[in-house]
């Protein structure tokens, strides 16, 4: 009996263990199958849309942006990273009250500076709850703006399109831990200028008390292409430049409206016809990622996508003055080649400004650029001596004083407005940089020591020979050492 009882208990234990093992294996298979099915059959068209709102404020205000998520699955967690110009905001806070995420846990909330850009990163954690699939605000991002932001600036709020240190990125997970596909619609904040009073003369840019002269057009055109270095009265001229009363001065839309009034095609607007700025999600300006070796001149195609007929285009591109220099530009193959005659691309202190309109008053009739997406202009940039093989190149963020990235269009016949781009920019990557003799990834005094050792004491040649040829003469000699020393200590 004892032996039987022993074997019975042992057998029962084995059966129980087998049942538990089977249940565990079955549960694991079920979870794996569910996860596999969810992942394997995920439809790229079931994209989740992150969307920021467009807000209007005064410099120094705390601005609340709605972050909305249109999700096709229940959300167990979501995170987002946004970026904006360094110094534009001094703090970033997250508020979930009154949103679809009300009551959930904010896992982390921080503001960091990376590559000269302010980055606000947030993770919201839901379990054991979840945010049901649907549309609507999931958070309010509270940003304290700087009082020094120029009035009339349009500051885009851009979703950070890279993986931030620590693996954080714009992503959403369902309750099984599967990530969603995501699309992004950026937001912005317009820092208003004051509406003009009765003593102001919109259209009088040179302040001679005469509105809408050819001289006013020329002064506006100069401002858009290269910037005015000295104003008669900056505040008054800025106010008078806002011809379409969208509270956004010095835009290509104001310039084209000036031309239409001078030519008698339309009458000046009055201040009671205040306009709003249009943010069309399909509008964008971008350049493709550049990767290659540094040469004397690199070509950078700039593309534009416009969903409305465009009557004028302008943009500002910023880069380091010791990195690149505008050599020339080309309209070969451009969408505006042969279409518009008044085109300039000029270098300014922070980079370059580009402006294109049909023509000066009296030159030719207005010609609109039809909706589409393709090449706008090819920039030819001289490569100087960048200190790194990863060059920051970006569209202007604080879009003011003629550096507005956008185009103007007909909302109704003879009514002009401004449409902002959802601009995309990337860093330029070179496979090596001239002057980085030791291959460390940047230029410093070690490169001088390396070249001296190679030239005078039989040291190793630069891993990439051309990187040591600082003056690009075809040989490495003392002239390269002299040029490299001058460059290092002149920075």
State the major sheet. 7 strands, mixed
End-to-end separation: 95 Å
- Gyration radius, in Å: 29 Å
> CATH top level of the largest domain?
Mainly Beta
Structural class: alpha+beta
Low-confidence stretches: 1-45
Topology-level CATH name of the largest domain? Immunoglobulin-like
Please state the overall shape, judged from the principal axes of the Cα atoms: globular
Q: Which second-level CATH architecture of the largest domain applies?
A: Sandwich
User: What share of the residues lie within helices?
Assistant: 10-25%
Number of domains: 3
Range of strand content:
25-35%
| pLDDT averaged residue by residue | 77
Task: Give the beta-strand count.
Answer: 25
What's the tally of helices? Answer: 7
Molecular structure report:
The structure is a single chain. The protein is of the alpha+beta class. The chain has 3 domains: 48-191, Immunoglobulin-like, CATH 2.60.40.680; 200-431, Immunoglobulin-like, CATH 2.60.40.680; 445-490, no CATH class. Helices cover 20% and strands 31% of the residues. Strands 2, 4, 6, 7, 9, 10 and 12 form a 7-stranded mixed β-sheet that branches. Strands 16, 18, 19, 22, 23 and 24 form a 6-stranded antiparallel β-sheet that branches. A 5-stranded mixed β-sheet has the order 5-8-3-1-11, with no helix packed on it. A hairpin with a 2-residue loop joins β6 and β7. The N and C termini lie far apart (95 Å). The model is unreliable at 1-45 (pLDDT under 50).
